[in-house]
Write a structure and sequence with these properties.
Length: about 450
């Protein structure tokens, strides 16, 4: 983190320094060029006004400018391009200068200028030529650094600034990272404290998320603990009964006519154990992460028809009429789970209805959504308990549930299946009137 902040800061700073240096060099160089041109022009006009070069038949050898104007090169050219005088090189050795652009321009328009690469590396030569009244041309030249040379000459200063900036960035990134990270570390230490506020505004969403996740983790841990305790308790009751009856039988303490009753109790409790374990296994399958679920296009009404056979026997035993209404409705679902869902809901409707009651299963489409409704006119659920019946092992009337083979896990399984299918389940119930469970897909 610190390293990243550091690198980014340094990169931005170096870029800024380089861009500024290049920009300033270009602007400065433009001004510098203008200044040179202006100096050359002033010098040329001054030399013209000295009248040194007013006549072509003056003794050129008596003119010596080399000492005074060592920086400047002065060249005097006759009307045909012949060099009459040069303060740097022997004029006789110089070739005709008519082809130089600044000289041709001066003959044509009165003055001319040009810039050419100098023989010396990284230098340019600036020329200014002016036409004299005697039809000769006086040219002044000076060498100056090229753009690259000017830039290279400021390089040491730029490098020094970059070194300074890197030092400042290292210090800055360290303190900045410290300022950002220290409150986060402090916050991590206070996660379990619900009143602890985020140290700064930008951290509020993170703090909120962490707090809720922390609370979820704690709640999940508590739910697991409760579940384990409940499971042990639920398993212990039938097992205690089985072992107690078996002990009695083994000790020969049971009268012959009572034996059948005890065998029946043992079978009932063993079955209860089996259904409990089946439901627990089902629930743990839902909890297991990475479970592979296969969804397919199925007819929910068709599945309900298949479920009816088993459930009808059950309903008949309890003298309850069971009917299925509706029409074929297709949804994307796991067929095995849909069977489980329907069976659990219908079994509850039968279990919590009185003899002579009526259970209706309706599969149809309402408002474009496939809906499964299981209606009974049984004992109903008090409003205060309707929220809790989906909790594991939560029962409104514990003895009725147990007496009818309930495990207290049926609706917990239903809730899981509903969630896995992105569906919604709602309860509409009033005590003594009946219950309707509606699942909307
Ligand atoms: P159980 O195995 O005890 O039926 P469930 O999880 O299926 O457990 O249901 C939880 C509780 O919800 C039941 O014990 C019962 O009190 C109540 N309940 C469920 N369905 C109905 C219903 N159709 N009518 C009345 N009470 C119901």
């Amino acid at each position: 983190m610190k390293r990243k902040i550091n690198l980014q800061l340094v990169a931005i700073a170096i870029l800024a320094v380089m861009a500024t240096a290049i920009g300033i060099t270009i602007v400065y160089y433009g001004l510098f060029q203008r200044q040179i041109r202006q100096d050359l022009m002033i010098n040329a006009k001054m030399l013209r006004d000295t009248q040194y070069f007013s006549s072509t038949d003056i003794d050129v050898d008596s003119v010596d400018l080399s000492a005074e104007n060592s920086e400047l090169r002065v060249t005097w050219i006759d009307g045909d391009g012949t060099v009459l005088y040069d303060n740097d090189v022997d004029a006789a050795k110089l070739e005709n200068h008519m082809d130089r652009p600044e000289i041709r321009e001066a003959f044509e328009t009165g003055e001319g200028d040009a810039v050419r690469k100098s023989d010396t590396l990284n230098e340019d030569t600036y020329y200014y030529a002016i036409l004299l009244t005697n039809s000769t041309v006086l040219r002044i030249a000076a060498n100056a650094q090229s753009l690259l040379a000017v830039f290279l000459s400021v390089m040491p200063v730029i490098l020094l600034i970059i070194v300074l900036i890197i030092t400042v960035c290292v210090i800055l990134s360290f303190t900045m990272a410290q300022q950002i990270l220290a409150p986060i570390e402090a916050m991590a230490d206070h996660l379990e404290n619900a009143d602890y506020d985020a140290p700064y505004k930008e951290l509020e969403p993170l703090a909120r998320k962490l707090k809720s996740q922390h609370a979820d983790v704690l709640a999940a841990a508590k739910a697991r603990q409760d579940f384990t305790a409940n499971v042990s308790h639920e398993l212990k009751t039938p097992l205690t009964a089985i072992s107690g009856y078996a002990d009695l039988l083994q000790a020969g303490m049971v009268e012959e006519k009572q034996k059948d009753h005890l065998y029946g109790e043992i079978t009932k409790n063993a079955n209860r154990l089996l259904s409990l374990i089946n439901d627990i296994i089902r629930l743990s399958e839902f909890d297991r992460a990475g479970r592979e679920l296969t969804f397919e296009q199925i007819d929910l009404y068709g599945i309900a028809v298949e479920c009816m056979d088993n459930l009808k026997v059950n309903a008949k035993q309890r003298e309850i009429s069971l009917t299925l209404e509706g029409n074929p409705c297709y949804i994307n679902a796991n067929p095995h789970m849909m069977r489980e869902l329907i069976e659990n809901l219908v079994q509850n409707a039968i279990r919590y209805s009185n003899a002579g009651g009526r259970v209706r299963v309706i599969v149809d489409e309402r408002g474009g959504k496939v809906t499964l409704a299981v209606k009974d006119n049984g004992i109903g659920i008090p409003a205060a308990e309707q929220e809790r019946i989906f909790e594991r092992f939560y029962r409104v009337d514990k003895s009725r549930s147990k007496a009818t083979g309930g495990t207290g896990l049926g609706l917990a399984i239903v809730k899981h299946i509903v969630e896995l299918h992105d569906a919604k389940i709602s309860v509409d119930s009033s005590p003594g009137v009946g219950t309707t469970m509606t699942v909307i897909f």
